[in-house]
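Good day; I would like, with your permission, to put a structural problem before you. I would ask you to consider whether the tokens describe a fold that such a sequence might reasonably adopt. The full record is reproduced below for your convenience:
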Amino acid sequence: MQAEPKPAAAGTNQRSRRRVREYVLLTLGVLTPIGILAVNASAFVMVHLDAFRLIIAGLALLSGLVLNGLTAWWLLRLASLHAPPLFREYRTWAIGAAVLIVALTAAGGGYLTYLGMRDPRHLPDSLSVVVAAFMLLLPFAVTFAGRRMAGLGGIIPVDEPTPRDKPHRTSPSRRPLRGGPTSPQAGK
């Protein structure tokens, strides 16, 4: 008596189950050593919290400068595109206000992080958690609000136009131009 051949889908289903099992075992195998390293690193930081407190506050300051600075840069660019005459007139004031706001929020985040880590017995400190959440969510909230006011969708700003929005330069023979020195439009 011959066994009936299994359908192809059954073999695929077995392979996918085996693949899931392999990924679960691999994940468990990798997460355990990473967890051990994280716990030991945390214990080291807790023992030397006074030294790490300043470093962590400095990194919070740097993070605030980068995240809020990128958001401010994008908002200034958005303002220059949507209101060019107004932006040209108040460009210096807008950039000065953006720099001041970015510097103050980043410095405030770094200082409050420094204050929140003063006592290792009270960690995790609610002040540090709230400040970290605020510093992380503020750029996204400002970007979201700015995109909504500008009539754009989504959260992440994308500046690249779609292929149909890009102007296509073509030669008289309708072939795309490369823009090199021998191009018919060279020097124009």
Helices lie at 8-47, 49-82, 84-89, 91-116, 126-149. The radius of gyration is 28 Å. The mean pLDDT is 77.
